[in-house]
């Protein structure tokens, strides 16, 4: 039997190749600037969360994790991609790692208590959850029916 439809050089049916076969391109300048901005916003949220999480237990911890979730999901909605979650999450992780390192004077921001570990592990879990939820694009149009 003869195959119908147009085939691409990669063998995938249809006019376009699979998403994996497409070449990588740089994002537009505006989107790249947005990624840098939300990366820095993730770092600021980590700093603010580090100061608040131990101050008012358990409210401070919940406030810090909700702030992180807000910036992660906000980045996804602002850019329309899942990379919008990764950029502030990466900024959050870099800031938290830099804040946990002890200084030569012996000062550090995080104590060795359960609340600090809940903030660190909870923030990573929130980042994974937000990346999983992300912004899912749905087809637009008045008569669109999914599943057909």
From TrEMBL:
Entry keyword Nucleotide-binding: no
Keyword Transmembrane in annotation: yes
Cited InterPro entries: DUF6113 (IPR046095)
Keywords: Membrane, Transmembrane, Transmembrane helix
Transmembrane segments: 32-50, 56-76, 83-102, 108-133
Domain of life, per lineage: Bacteria
Cleaved signal peptide residues: none
Identification of the protein by name: Integral membrane protein
The organism of origin for this protein: Streptomyces poonensis
């Amino acid at each position: 039997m003869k195959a119908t439809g147009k085939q691409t050089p990669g063998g995938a049916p249809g006019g376009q190749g699979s998403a994996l076969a497409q070449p990588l391109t740089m994002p537009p300048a505006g989107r790249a600037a947005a990624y840098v901005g939300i990366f820095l916003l993730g770092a600021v949220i980590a700093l603010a969360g580090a100061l608040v999480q131990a101050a008012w237990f358990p409210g401070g911890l919940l406030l810090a994790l909700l702030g992180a979730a807000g910036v992660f999901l906000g980045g996804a909605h602002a850019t329309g991609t899942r990379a919008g979650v990764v950029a502030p999450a990466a900024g959050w992780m870099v800031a938290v790692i830099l804040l946990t390192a002890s200084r030569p004077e012996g000062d550090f921001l995080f104590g060795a208590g359960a609340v600090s570990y809940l903030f660190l592990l909870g923030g990573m879990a929130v980042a994974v959850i937000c990346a999983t939820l992300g912004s899912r694009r749905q087809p637009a149009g008045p008569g669109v029916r999914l599943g057909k």
